[in-house]
Amino acid sequence: MIEALLEALTDSLKLIPFLFLTYLAMGILERAASDKSKRIIKEAGVIGPIWGALLGAFPQCGFSAAASNFYVGRIITLGTLIAIYMSTSDEMLPIFLSEKVAGGTILKIIAAKIVIGIISGFLVEIFFGWLAKKHKKPKDFDEKSHAEHCNCGAGVLMNAIGHTLQVFFFILIISAVISVLIYCVGEGAIYSFFSDIPVLGNFVAALVGLIPNCAASVVITQLYLDGIIGPGPMISGLLCSAGVGLLVLFKENKHIKENVTIVAILYVVSVAWGVLIELAGVTF
């Protein structure tokens, strides 16, 4: 067991330089594109789900949080909000890059999330668009007064260091837990837990994805890379993984039933896509 834990520590330490460089590059790109992205999404109108899914796939600090604020102020539609939530991958891309996953595989997964986000966004708009119309914009809503709910202002370098350390510790903990489980019960038993019942992994992964923290996407991505879960559960979990977006939604939107309904829609649709991918035998 000690050897397994040391191996988990060693593997995690090796990721630090790659994680840091990835977050640094992403931070620089974000500074150049963030304000423009938010302006585009605010002016998207009926094609909001298209722009929402496309822009949501680009790693941006607090973009899902900003989308939640925009929805509360009825600046964007429910379909656009869902498209952004589902295409946002939080920490998936940095981990894939640091683990040197093939570029083609990464692009396929991102493309799948974008397409799923667009389709789901329009479907949600058609069947659940009434939900946003039920409650008007709060009278005291002031777009400028609503913070981004992230530490983007701390500087690109400090953000890169902070994200790197945070994700490193998450990966270390997850890798250690997986190593201990494999040592205690065996890799076959863990794999069987997710594979014996075809749809079980999708429900579990989507529940993990709903955790309003970057830990959710770290867990899902790491389990996929370790071969514990397949493409279906991975997609279900990542579609639900909207970072702090859901946390901001519950904080800013006073209509609790509406928030719960949005979470339920996100969960059910994410699981449905994951099951479809799993049954279809799709690989990336």
What's the topology here?
Elements: H1 2-42, H2 48-56, H3 63-72, H4 78-87, H5 92-98, H6 103-128, H7 130-134, H8 156-185, H9 187-195, H10 200-209, H11 214-225, H12 231-240, H13 245-252, H14 256-280
Helix pairs in contact: 1-2, 1-5, 1-8, 2-4, 2-6, 3-4, 3-13, 4-6, 8-9, 8-11, 10-12, 10-14, 11-12, 12-14
Number of helices in the DSSP assignment: 14
- Let me know the largest β-sheet: none
Total number of domains: 1
Number of strands: 0
State which percent range the strand residues make up: under 5%
What radius of gyration results from the CA coordinates?
19 Å
Order of helices and strands: HHHHHHHHHHHHHH
Shape: globular
Low-confidence stretches: 145-149
Overall mean confidence score, pLDDT: 82
Structural class: mainly alpha
* Head-to-tail CA distance between termini: 32 Å
Portion of residues in helices?
A: over 70%
